[in-house]
Inverse folding.
């Protein structure tokens, strides 16, 4: 009879490595159930462990991760679930014909829950990168990332505060060039020349030059009724714009 072993028969040979126990109350064998997934060809495919490393071949680049990092992607979650034998290559990796440059930002988001801020202090936001990442996230079914990009939340992550100052003393420029280690500061310079009148002492005293209040009674007597004398001097006047970049990290972190 099928599934029944005669009490006098020797136990069957175990070729699977699985313990097969005899039910003491029955002549039939108690065979443990396998947590496997049926494949397309009717066979059984071994289940994919949540801790088993997953290899993703994205274009010409490979990425290594665990399956629990991929549950936030509808496509990747289904691909690595074990339901389709055809998803795996011979070396055990999963091939995805996508852009690895944009894919790495999507995978980083799935791992850490941190949105990909593409901002450079010199060039500002990289909108081409945002578009590429958005297309990748949409293809892979990563809805949270698509929503963040569609709402342009990245614009709230960076604020640039600008202050302006006119500098005519060249000695102040080294001070303006010193960031004191603050990489969030950026300077823009707009130089121009202008003519400045500087007072000339009637007695020609150097320390009185451009300082009329330093001239006393003797200087005024020397001047008499003559008009004040001035030198017209070209002076470099520079408009210094200081831009400070302030980051709001909370905008880039998934709640």
């Amino acid at each position: 009879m099928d599934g029944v072993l005669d009490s006098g028969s020797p136990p069957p040979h175990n070729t699977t490595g699985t313990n097969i126990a005899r039910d003491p109350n029955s002549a039939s064998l108690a065979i443990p159930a396998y947590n496997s997934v049926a494949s397309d060809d009717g066979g059984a495919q071994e289940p994919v462990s949540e801790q088993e490393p997953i290899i993703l071949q994205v274009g010409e680049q490979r990425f290594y991760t665990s399956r629990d990092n991929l549950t936030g992607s509808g496509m990747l979650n289904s691909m690595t679930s074990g339901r389709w034998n055809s998803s795996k290559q011979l070396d055990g990796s999963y091939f995805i014909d996508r852009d690895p440059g944009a894919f790495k930002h999507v995978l980083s988001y799935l791992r850490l829950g941190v949105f990909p801020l593409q901002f450079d202090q010199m060039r500002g936001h990289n909108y081409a990168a945002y578009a590429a990442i958005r297309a990748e996230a949409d293809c892979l079914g990563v809805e949270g990332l698509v929503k963040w990009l569609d709402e342009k939340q990245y614009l709230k992550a960076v604020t640039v505060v600008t202050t302006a100052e006119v500098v005519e003393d060249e000695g102040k420029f080294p001070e303006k060039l010193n960031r004191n280690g603050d990489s969030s500061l950026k300077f823009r310079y707009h130089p121009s020349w202008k003519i400045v009148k500087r007072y000339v002492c009637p007695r020609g005293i150097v320390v009185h030059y451009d300082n009329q209040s330093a001239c006393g009674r003797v200087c005024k007597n020397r001047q008499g009724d003559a008009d004040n004398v001035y030198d017209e001097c070209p002076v470099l006047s520079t408009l210094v714009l200081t831009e400070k970049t302030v980051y709001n990290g909370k905008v880039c972190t998934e709640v």
Summary: The CA atoms of residues 113 and 254 lie 5 Å apart. The longest strand covers residues 229-247. The chain has a mean pLDDT of 81. The first helix runs from residue 74 to 79.
